[in-house]
């Protein structure tokens, strides 16, 4: 068994500064909640912590266009014109300018790069960056709550500086469009995204026919799922298709995005998965890493907008999976509950297990499952 100190955990209070405003759904308080939960469980210690740095412009430019980086720097100081803001995606209701946004966004990228370096030099074998996973950011445009795409930059960094074959596995409910379009014409990096269909959900992309172009053809894989997909069907199609793609691509390292917005209580999406689903996903990917990449894997956070009832318990299992610790049951730490019950606008669950609060039975389970299995079979046909 790998020593527990061979797992890195990217964290600094400064990561909490990536914040559009107090009412925005993207709230990094979920990172603090998860970190303190792991600390109160006595599994996360100072020895695991990898402090983030601010990524350089040269590093950001591995994926992002130079003019876009300069626009973000100008926006950081409130000197970006309205015309420029519109050009670079900074005038939408979802993604807009905030003070020192370049520094706070580049720090998220720098945390991922520090973890990548630590894995490549053998300091740690694996690790997670729960404050990252900003997979919607495009090379030249902000998008979907995301300024710089730390997943894409890290993938290109590993390919450029360490000559790694990188596979990205994105399990966020929203399609990883920024990452996909960053690598759509290259065969260096494999992008796999399993997500709710874009028929009813941002960003509207991720159809199974989006497979890459030119040299990148067949290096993009999309598995769009029907709304109200449930636990058993989700895990079945994930396991089978990821295994097939991994065996075809033969990666050296895996980067995975663990948005927990596939949960039935998430306010922004329409899937019907549970905490049990979210607990199992990182263990599945960890096993794939152990089997195919000598254990090398970086797990990112991503989406997840029910920050009190879902995110802390789900994201804790990302770190637990990396430590080879078992899935938890029983009560949550009393110290954590006592502190955060004071601040939570909803009643906090006291147990690790799902209570299926407000769960609505799915009436079209058979039809939904059959459509998802049909799409999964297309992937199996391509890569088997």
Architecture overview:
There is one protein chain. With 384 residues, the chain is of the alpha/beta class. It has a single domain, classed as Histone deacetylase domain (Arginase, Chain A, 3-Layer(aba) Sandwich). 39% of the residues lie in helices and 10% in strands. The chain has twelve helices and eight strands. The protein has an eight-stranded parallel sheet with strand order 2-1-3-8-7-4-5-6, with helices on both faces. Helix 1 (29-40) packs across helix 10. The longest helix is centred in the N-terminal third of the chain and has 20 residues, at 101-120. The protein is globular. The protein starts with 6 loop residues before the first strand and ends with a helix. The mean pLDDT is 97.
Rounded to an integer in angstroms, the radius of gyration calculated over CA atoms is 19 Å
Number of strands: 8
Our measurement of the CA-to-CA distance between the termini, rounded to an integer number of angstroms, reads 31 Å
Helix percentage: 25-40%
Q: Which strand-content bin applies to the residues? A: 5-15%
Order of helices and strands: EHEHHHHEHEHEEHEHEHHH
